[in-house]
Design goal:
Blueprint: E1 4-7, H1 14-23, E2 29-31, H2 35-44, E3 49-51, E4 70-75, H3 93-96, H4 100-113, E5 119-124, H5 147-158, E6 162-169, E7 180-187, E8 200-201, E9 209-210, E10 225-226, H6 236-251, E11 257-260, E12 271-272, E13 288-295, E14 307-309, E15 323-332, E16 358-363, H7 366-371, H8 376-393, E17 413-419, E18 422-433, H9 436-442, H10 463-472, H11 476-486, E19 499-502, E20 507-510
Parallel strand pairs: 1-2, 1-4, 2-3, 4-5, 8-9
Antiparallel strand pairs: 5-7, 6-7, 10-18, 11-12, 11-13, 13-14, 13-15, 15-18, 16-17, 17-18, 19-20
Amino acid sequence: MKDIIIDCFAGGGGASVGIEMALGRPIDIAINHDPDAIAMHKINHPDTLHLTEDILKVNLKRHLKWGQKVRMMWASPDCTSHSRAKGGKPIKRGLRILPMSVYRLCKQILKATGSLPEVVMMENVAEIQDWGPLDENDRPIKDRKGEHYQKFVKLMKNLGYRFECRELVAADYGAPTTRKRWYAVFRFDDKPIVWPEVTHNKYGTDGMKKWEPIVNYINFNDLGRSIFGRKKPLAVNTMNRIARGLQKFVFDSPEPFIVQVNHGGDNFRGQSIHEPIPTITQKHGYGIVSPLLIQYHSETAKNEVRGQSVDEPIMTIDTSPRYGLAAAFLTKFYKSGCGQSLLEPLHTITTSPGHFGQISILSIDYKQLIASGVDAETAQKCTWVSEFIMEYYGCGIGQSLNDLLHTVVTKDRFALITVLGNEYAILDIFLRMLEPEELKLGQGFPRDYIISFKRSNGKPYPKSEQVKRIGNSVVPIMAMALTEANCPYLKVGERIGNMMIDDMAQQLRFA
């Protein structure tokens, strides 16, 4: 009789694919009330029985046999009614009781098979531990926080389970995200509860690997559109976030992250300014780009920088289109008389001590700039960039962003920054939202995991749904690590990736 593995809240499939990565076999039963979630799960896990049902009403007895063993059950109940990100909004009572469905299913499986699930793993926000009753306004009662959580744990223990929980950061296990979550393991068998060993840390010290940066998963062949000259101007708050991000992660950073923008191929990567920069051709008319991520959520403090460098793991991905890629285009500036065009290939810069962050405004004749090889459109962009720099930073170095200068910059002034002793003109600043595929990889999903497909009605699966699935998902690497640590005896082989069409060769391949 086949042993069973169940995923109780199988949305995008993060837990399911993580278990599959650990064991080399698919899960057997996936439950979710949302047809859109089941659609994505089904296309990636075709051998799984999918139940599009309410977790509080599903009847597993129809799908299990007496004497059958449920070796493992994973449950990640909706976390929005427990998360701090919920803010001051009223809480939905129905969502808040979802963790109790785990206890209900355990009892149901006991009646159907004669035994409890041997291992139950759970994932949620850390605030699940504060789960308690609500007042008449659907707000948590502070003096009674944690009551329902303790009751749930006690009920599970009364069934005979041993229980341990920890808060773990996904980046510590090799995922390119710093998503922090509460994980729990309940065991009914006689085997010990095992927590996976940490393999990474922020700086790569103590014999561990350095955190995996998000830069490895961003497509820099698509840098979006200029923030200037748009038909619909960007919101003031968005421009503020870009300005703060550039100051913190580019201008004031002792080691900003830079990438080539004219690079093709699959192995496109960024690099530190302390590594030599290869010669850059004029394919795009630009030299190097210093990228960063900004967030579209409101700041919680007046001067807070809602952004990050791309050489760090991405912060928590949620269900909304939250992250934008901002990039400042830089090109080496050649003063008149040096015999080189502004758009000539950038010379190799070798390693040497230097400081990135000295902003200055250089006076130069507009006609002279055009004569050096810059077209009128690029020169106009230089002007817009200079106005942006002057407005947010002034012409001084290290000026506070709170001291906004509304100086009108004329066409003969262009913003420069100093990189390792060389002056660079800032030609443009681009911005775009991160694509679902990038968020998927940032969440730790395998590259072959399918999130873009056509529904049964022939219509494409919307990007908004793709982002929701990713934001609600378990980080696959975490599900894999916990499964490997606690259920290694269930391993039957290695995961086989989804077959995809190679766009270049027009042939099937394993991604």
